[in-house]
Amino acid sequence: MNTQLDQLKQFTVVVADTGDFTSLKQFAPRDATTNPSLILKAAQMPEYQFLVDQAIADNKSKCGGQELLAHVLDDLTILFGLEILKLVPGRVSTETDASMAFDTEALVAKGRHFIELYQKHGIARERILIKIASTWEGIRAAEKLQRDGINCNLTLLFSLAQAVACAEAKVKLVSPFVGRIMDWYKAKEKKEFAPAEDPGVLSVKEIYCYYKKFGYATEVMGASFRNVGEIQELAGCDLLTISPPLLGELQKSTAPLARKLSPEIARDSKIEKLPLDEKTFRWQFNENAMATEKTAEGIRLFNADAQKLAQFIAAKLD
């Protein structure tokens, strides 16, 4: 009997949510994604010290001070991406600075810069997804990058309004955060949720059905899982990005895994079209307390870990 991980791979692209290369070898995902928190954790592990040393050595003679730190951090991000691309056949998502979340032009410049750095190492842009927070400004930046042929992964996505804006901007992929949505409702309502009733699961199903029913090409990648039950309920989603511990649980089980999402099921859904301009987006987003709070919190947390990574690297530059 195939493992649940093998069964899942038959109708969903499995993506590893990790900066740990050992996990990539073990679970053989097609794609991988990182974020500042994962890179901070990996950069502090002895087995990846060689990447930190390389990023510093490649830049130390070129400049100094804050400029040197900025170059080293960008190069370290790319070096992790390059190592990941040696182990996965598909794409890696590389995250832009959380501090740029409300600056369209800065995000566009950073996305182009990352692609240039990858191309210098012989990596085609088709293998890279530029990861951007799903703010209005982030979505506009992604729209510009997509016109340049630079594919984007819109992260920190918690609402249908964000998802619709991304699809209309022709973004390549969105990452709705399942677990963080459930965390918010669990704290608010003081109750546990069965996987089929999990608010995060229901949010991803709604986005998936909307895209498939109305013919959007944007891919849906469920993210931020708290348990295997959430993953099982989203079997059939375009992609799912899963942490190594949960990939391990799926690999250990041989229980049958039913497909829960498909384009055929989505086309029969009752969901209605959402007309969306900037005013409508901002109002609907504002009216969704969970999405507003979790997006802001996510940007703050990623920025905090980016600052910790900067301090960690700066100490090595002294």
The share of residues in extended strands comes to: 5-15%
What can be said about the biggest beta sheet? 8 strands, parallel, barrel
Order of helices and strands: HEHEHHHEHEHEHEHHEHEHHHH
Assembly type of the shown chains?
single chain
Helix share of residues?
55-70%
Broad structural category:
alpha/beta
CATH class: Alpha Beta
Number of domains: 1
Structure annotation, total helices: 15
State the separation between the terminal residues, measured CA to CA: 55 Å
Task: Give the overall form.
Answer: globular
Query: In order across it, which strands form the biggest sheet?
Result: 1-2-3-4-5-6-7-8
Find the CATH topology: TIM Barrel
CATH superfamily: Aldolase class I
- Rounded mean pLDDT is 96
Count of extended strands: 8
Radius of gyration, CA atoms, in whole angstroms: 19 Å
Q: Which regions are unreliable across 5 or more consecutive residues at pLDDT < 50?
A: none
What is the level-2 CATH architecture name? Alpha-Beta Barrel
Can you put this structure into words, describing what you see?
This protein has 318 residues and is α/β, with parallel strands linked by helices. It has one domain: Aldolase class I (TIM Barrel). The chain is built from 15 helices and eight strands. The protein has an eight-stranded parallel barrel, surrounded by eight helices. Helix 11 links the parallel strand 7 and strand 8. It is globular, with a radius of gyration of 19 Å. The mean pLDDT is 96.
